[in-house]
Every structure is written in structure tokens, then in C-alpha cells.
Please model this.
Amino acid sequence: QVQLVESGGGLVQPGGSLRLSCAASGSIFSIDAMDWYRQAPGNQRELVAAITSGGSTNYADSVKGRFTISRDNAKNTVYLQMNSLKPEDTAIYYCHCNVVKKRGGVTYSYWGQGTQVTVSS
Model:
């Protein structure tokens, strides 16, 4: 089994910063894409940022220039640095990983439990 443990959420004032972390553990040979999604009340879950195993990144237009995704492959950890936060960034943020459990094996999709980010004065 594979577990994803997220940390770093909280309450921050507009214009502030937060750094989210997501550590994967368990039966892991390698991890392909690692992503961050978010879901605000009444909205669908949306992709915020993604990073491949090679380090290529992709961002939602709403966060470009403010958020930075990175990963530490040795630690099986993905990070999301969030700067210049806005009230509309308020949501539950979820980590997602595509995990390969053995050499040549298929990928399995795993989700974290979610961490609340609230941007408010």
C-alpha cells in the first residue's frame, strides 16, 4: 500500500505565503507525475500544478507566476510554494501521485487526505 501525507496548510492573510508538502511512503519503486489539485466549496476539483519525474511543470492559469511546484525524488516528496495568496485560493488542496510499485509495472493513482488553505484578513 502507498500513503500520501500532506502538511503545511493553514490560515494566511492576502498577499501571504504558504508551502505545502506531500510525502509518499510504502510500496514504491518510482513515481511518475506528482500533482496538486484543489477544491473550493461548491466547485469541482481542479488541477493547480503538475510536475513530471523529469521536472517538467505545468500550472493552472490562475496560479502562474505565484505558485511553484517542485519535488525531491530521493524523498518521494512534492512541494507547492504559494506566494501572493488571494482569497480565491481558499480551498482544500490535495496531493496526487502516479506510483509504479515494481520495475516495468503499471502505475497506480493515489490521493492525499487534503489540507485546508484559507486566505482571509
Observations:
- The longest strand covers residues 30-39.
- The mean pLDDT is 96.
